[in-house]
Amino acid sequence: MLISIRFAGLGGQGIIFSGIALARAASLYERKRGNELFAVQTQSYGPEARGGTSKCDVKISDRAEFYPFIEKPDYLILMSEEAYEQFIQDTKSDTIVVLDTDAVGSRPDLRYYEVPAIRKAKELRKPIIANIIMLGAFIYLSKIISKKSVIRALQDISPQGTFELNKDALEVGFELGKALRLQQKET
């Protein structure tokens, strides 16, 4: 098993935090058929840091040795139109795209899911949690890592006083992912 995930958006959206949480969950807390998983996380962002395009790549494997960089991800999670424009060409025919409904205006010629993460975060009056809502939706849709493992990782890395907020945001995203999957089955 070797799965590659790219989170992309704008600096300041928590893109890198989401990738770190996923990689930590996979490498420290997840077990597949009783075996440990291995993960590597890399990140890059424009020189402006806030507002420029940001990406965080995560590779998860059941083997300890693998090349850490991603050329064409299995999953592409997008939280801005700028990220779409920059990274959509780095996909393959079976890449699954998870994109924010309102922040990404374009739609790929690939299998994709629309998650209203930013809108939901604003409705909850906590715009800062949109990345964790998106992570929760991705966790449900991909079934790569358990929600329990991600919650444990969030407990480790959330800044003081923000764990419960992040945990609740993950649950909101998880439920959005579940609704998308049900909707897909109905069509």
Q: How would you characterize this protein structure?
A:
By secondary structure, the protein is of the alpha/beta class. The protein has one domain: Pyruvate-ferredoxin oxidoreductase, PFOR, domain III (Pyruvate-ferredoxin Oxidoreductase, domain 3, 3-Layer(aba) Sandwich), CATH 3.40.920. It is 41% helix and 23% strand. It has helices at 15-29, 81-87, 117-123, 130-142, 147-157, 163-186, and strands at 2-10, 31-32, 35-36, 38-45, 53-61, 75-78, 96-100, 112-115. The strands form 2 sheets. It has a 6-stranded mixed sheet with strand order 4-5-1-6-7-8, with helices on both faces. A hairpin with a 7-residue loop joins strand 4 and strand 5. It is globular, with a radius of gyration of 15 Å. It starts with a strand and ends with a helix. The model has no long low-confidence stretch (mean pLDDT 92).
User: Can you give the mean pLDDT?
Assistant: 92
Q: Helical region count?
A: 6
Structural class: alpha/beta
SSE ordering: EHEEEEEHEEHHHH
Number of domains: 1
Which range best describes the helical content: under 10%, 10-25%, 25-40%, 40-55%, 55-70% or over 70%?
40-55%
Task: Supply the CATH class.
Answer: Alpha Beta
Note the gap between the termini: 30 Å
> What low-confidence regions span 5 or more consecutive residues with pLDDT below 50?
none
Structural shape:
globular
Q: How large is the radius of gyration?
A: 15 Å
CATH architecture label: 3-Layer(aba) Sandwich
As laid out across the biggest beta sheet, the strand order is 4-5-1-6-7-8
Most strands sheet: 6 strands, mixed
| Beta fraction | 15-25%
